[in-house]
Structure formats: structure tokens, C-alpha cells
Amino acid sequence: MSAATEAKPKVVLAYSGGLDTSVIIPWLKENYDYDVIACCANVGQGGGETEGLEEKAKKSGASKLYLLDLQEEYVTDFIFPTLKAGATYEGKYLLGTSHARPVIAKHLVEVAHKEGAVAICHGATGKGNDQVRFELTVMALDPSLKCVAPWREWNIKSREDAIDYAEAHGVPVPCTKSDLYSRDRNLWHISHEGMDLEDPANEPMYAKLLKLCNTVEKAPDQAEYVTVQFEKSIPVAVNGTKLPPVQLVEELNVLGGKHAIGIEDIVEDRLVGMKSRGVYETPAGTILYKALDTLESLCLDRDTQAFKRQSAVRFAELVYDGKWFTPLRESMSAMFDQMAESVTGEVKLKLYKGNLVPAGAKSPFSLYNENIASFGDSHELYNHHDAEGFIRLFGLPLRVRAMMLSENGMSNKV
């Protein structure tokens, strides 16, 4: 037989070097007889998580490892558009895992094309949201690629089972049965799930759990101020120093983490229909969302602000549900770009033991006019006497209804 005839079909695996993706490599070779191409996307995991991965991947059975640095693309093309929309899922979750998946999946597809692979494989569980996010992205970019999800197929039922499988196959894994929190870390956040967190009645063991943030108790006793400068809703400088996107987020992560900013204990509604509980650390994101919201209160008119807040809920749902590469998400981003044209300026915030307090904002496009808002005399711009006619017209429907009720021997309930 020729080498071409003997060549195995290739699969591109989203590889982190963690427990799940490490055991997936030998499982794929046993159950699919694939040539496994491991692909690790660096979206800011930090902590040395990408060190020594090539050796580890090959020792686990992969034939090759791609290590892709996607940090700048992740921040510029995914994080900042979501920030610009003001999108938070269920009012708390700043979508750290949600918008990381489409950028990773996009590059898995690109590697698959380069390698001539027939399939994409991911380590997302059959109960989670990430399986949807990975596979919807693949469908949007190349529906001919097969998606393999071992957690929906294999007999491994728990992380303890996965450790046993790894040990039986000589696969090195980065955790033990005494520390089985499921964590996802990137430049924007780190999430913690599992173990004692699975019972919402348990207070999180923050001293053991937190990686980016101090506990409130260990945060400094002295408040600290930070200023963030925005250009068209995009953060460009911290404390007067212009910074590139990745460095700006890193800088605010350190500062926010120092003061215990951005710790959220959340019970959320997963896309697949169940509730899940997790602790999220998002220090830079929490600072940026608060700062941008403060600046928008100066720069956006009432109707635009109200519509933006309503639209942000839908945008967050699209991101959470894995619908990044869709016409609606792209159209909404274009709308938010237009809204952001005048959102330029500087915001000052006070950081103190988990609290984030606005301490002033300024913008050349501010709609706040002291001459109108002042309690003093401002006849040129606003005549107090005009309010009487306005209120009579504004309240006309109420007056008409009250007259009707009176004519029919009825009255408003008090």
C-alpha cells in the first residue's frame, strides 16, 4: 500500500493540556483511529498553562501541536464588541467563557483546512453550553466538518473516572482527586465550578478558590483610584497611559484583583435547560463595564440609552448561546458601533474592598449642560414656567380617564 492509502483521517482537537482534553487523545485513537492534531489556543490562560504542551500532547498520542496566540484578536474582535454592547447574561455574567469559544473554534476550522482534517473534537460536556458554542461556530464556518464530542459518547462519567483512565493510559494530568474544581481561565476571567460549589447552600471557600482576586478580607485597607479613557466606547488608556488592548486588560486585572473587584457567585440558566452554580472572577471586565456605563450616562441621550440597555440583553443571549457568527449578532454590533460614535472621554473610579464607586467623568461630547441642570436661573435655555404646560399635556390621558370614571360614578383605586 502507498503512504497515501495508509494515511489515517485527521481530527483537530481543541487541546488545553487539562484533564479532559488529555484523556481525549488516547480515546480518539482507540475509538476513531484518527491522526490527532492538537490545537491549543492561547486566549490568556496564564499561569504557565501553555508551557511544555507540545511534549505533553505527543506523549498523550497526538502527532502534532499547534500553539496559537489569539490574545489580541480575542480582546479586539470579541471582548471589546461585547463590552461596547454592555452585554451581561442574566445581569451578572460578563460572558468570559462565552465569547472565548467562537474565536477558538474559528481557528480550529482554519487548522482543519490547513491539515486536510475531516473533523473537529472538543472536550465540552454533554450538559454544558460550550458544546453548543463550539459546534455552532463550526457549522457557521464549515458545515462539512464533523464534530466529535467524547463526553456525549464515552463511558467516563466523572472527573474521578477521567483520572483513572489517564493513569491507565500513562497520560499526565494536572490535577488530583482532591482538587477537582472545573476551571476555565482566559484573559478576561476565570470560572470555578464543581465540588462544594454544586450545592448553592454552601458559601464558596474563597481563600482556597480565588486565583485572580484577593478575598475581601485580604484586600488593602486603603482605597485606590483608577482612571480609564475611552475612544468610541473602546478603552485605550489607564491612569493616563495609553496601552495596547491585551496589556490594558492585564493591567486592570492586577489592579482590580488587588482590591477584590469582580468576584461573583452566580446561579445561571444554562442554554441546555438546567441551572448551574459557579464563581467567576472578572476584575478588569467589572471595572470596564462600570466605567463605560458611567461615561454613557454623560454621552448618550435618554432614548438611545434605554434602547441600548434593552438590546444588550438580547446581545448577551446571542453570545451566551454561541451565535457569534450570525447575521443578527453582526447587525447588532454595527448598531452599537454607531451608538458609540460620541462615547469618548475619561472616567474615574474608586476601588475599595470589592466596591467600585464612580468618582467623576468627563467627555467633550457630554450632553450634561450645567446651565440647564442647575437650580439657578436659566431663562435662555429653560423657562420654569414652560413646565406647567408640559405637565398638563403630558398628563392629558390621565385627566381624561379620571373625568370618565367620575361621570360613571367610579374612581381610581387608592
Automatic annotation (TrEMBL):
Its EC number is 6.3.4.5. Pfam families: Arginosuc_syn_C, Arginosuc_synth. One of its GO terms (molecular function) is argininosuccinate synthase activity. GO terms for cellular component: cytoplasm. GO terms for biological process: argininosuccinate metabolic process; L-arginine biosynthetic process; urea cycle. Coiled coil: none annotated. The keyword Ligase applies. Pathway: Amino-acid biosynthesis; L-arginine biosynthesis; L-arginine from L-ornithine and carbamoyl phosphate: step 2/3. The keyword Translocase does not apply. Keywords: Amino-acid biosynthesis, Arginine biosynthesis, ATP-binding, Ligase, Nucleotide-binding. Residues 181-399 form the Arginosuccinate synthase C-terminal domain. It is an enzyme of class 6 (ligase). Residues 10-172 form the Arginosuccinate synthase-like N-terminal domain. PANTHER family: ARGININOSUCCINATE SYNTHASE. Homotetramer. This is argininosuccinate synthase. It comes from Leptomonas pyrrhocoris. The lineage of its organism: Eukaryota, Discoba, Euglenozoa, Kinetoplastea, Metakinetoplastina.
